[in-house]
């Protein structure tokens, strides 16, 4: 028996007026989602009450780790995903390259990902910022180092942090089109983080790369935004917990980190970028190769629906979900039978709402397909799932997939 988890990040939503009061999942014709829903469908509370709604808390829960017990902050998961190990007294931060604009004397954040900056541009901007004498001196004084990536996502680490230090930061994707000054951090290291954010804008706003991006009609990546403070976290071995060997396929460090901490390999797929044009086929191939080579379990995480929602682009959210149906679920259903019996769990990690462009912690629809009991095709959407099974604890959904 082979077991496959597919997460369509943020694909679940509330009803949208321009879709006739339907959600994207209710509006779209998704035939392969429907095949999966023929065996079992229902709603799952992936984000426990009282826990912030996000991919960090939700995916931890989906993998059987109750975030109410283990969660110490998002960034430590992303740090683990890029092999940054925290020592005692260290606190990690996710450091976004964002796009901001001065309007009437106030900085307004337009994009949490710097207009989706990546590759040489993202790496050069961050390295040039770190090399700037003013920024370098301020970061050194704050005992803050940054591990640079080739995306808008970077990892910062504060050293010698008191055990009782409490950081209070805001997720940039939750405050788009709002004044930056209304969301500077409070609590521990607030002055240092605010100073680094402001200084980064002074250094990056006229950077040649950003001038070129503006000339091309792209948003500039002209400010850093540290958030999601976390201390070292330990998670149980996936194989020890469930008795299954597996692999996790994703394009984002957060998911790599959860896999890393649970002892699951997480091969990087060329062209997998977390955006609408990610390498869907490469992700499917990587998952199937893991299963062919002896693994019992494979997870495929697709970030695109969430990113398109944060961007406020309904058409692209619809397209991202359509591609998940046609380019991930369809080939899985076509190629898995050659390996024998299989079960597939498909769900959204959390809702991401077009109305607010932010995450939401309400229950999400799921389907578990069993090749031994395929049933009649149905639909996987919020209204249909509400008539099905109710899973009140998201930490139980993995065991349900694995028949544990």
How would you classify the helix and strand content by structural class?
alpha/beta
**pLDDT < 50 stretches:** none
| Computed Rg | 21 Å
CATH architect. name of the largest domain:
3-Layer(aba) Sandwich
| Separate helix tally | 16
Q: Proportion of β residues? A: 15-25%
Which whole number gives the mean pLDDT?
96
Give a count of the beta strands, DSSP E runs of length 2 or more. 16
CATH class category name of the largest domain: Alpha Beta
CATH topology of the largest domain: Alkaline Phosphatase, subunit A
User: What is the rounded distance between the termini?
Assistant: 13 Å
Strand order of the largest sheet: 10-11-1-12-15-2-16
Task: Please give the largest β-sheet.
Answer: 7 strands, mixed
Molecular shape: globular
Number of domains: 2
| CATH-level-4 superfamily name of the largest domain | Alkaline Phosphatase, subunit A
Residues in helices, as a percent range: 25-40%
